[in-house]
Amino acid sequence: MYRMVVITDPETATGFRLAGVEVREAASPQAALEQLRSLLPLDYGLVAVNEDLLQGTDDDRSRMLRGRELPIIVPFPASRTQLESGEAYIARLVKEHIGFYVKLR
Predict the structure, then answer these.
(1) Residue 12 contacts residue 52 (beta carbons within 8 Å)
(2) Which of 8, 60, 84, 100 could form a disulfide with 88 if both were Cys (CB 3.0 to 4.6 A apart)?
(3) Helix residue ranges per DSSP H, 1-105
(4) How far is CA 105 from CA 90, 96, 100, 102, in A?
């Protein structure tokens, strides 16, 4: 049987702990990468990671997880203190994926 763990920032960690989830805290993407590295030899099947803590770690994660089926890494959206409108969110996603700002009507 495999376990699940969440790697997230200290502010979000409390909510996961209150829900009964095992949590590892990381304040930066590099710290999250180190947390992930420490979990590899253990019996974790699923690691949910705050998407902000995955920024810029794609190559390192790929090397670390090459040839491994587990754990499965699942990014989750970071909590935002200021929510953006639906239109702004869609415009941001379009710009991130196609590289151009598109004005929505």
Answers:
(1) no
(2) 84
(3) 10-18, 29-39, 58-65, 86-98
(4) 12, 19, 16, 10
Domains of the chain are 3-98 (3.40.50.10580)
7 sits in the region (left: phi over 0; alpha: psi -120 to 50; else beta) called: beta
Whole-model pTM: value is 0.73
Question: 71's torsion region: left (phi>0), alpha (psi -120 to 50) or beta?
Answer: beta
Q: What are the tokens at 72?
A: 């499965």
The two three-digit tokens of residue 92, written as one number:
């941001």
Q: How does pLDDT run across 45-102, given as a tens digit for each residue?
A: 999 999 999 999 999 999 999 999 999 999 998 876 555 666 777 777 788 878 777 7
- DSSP for residue 15: H
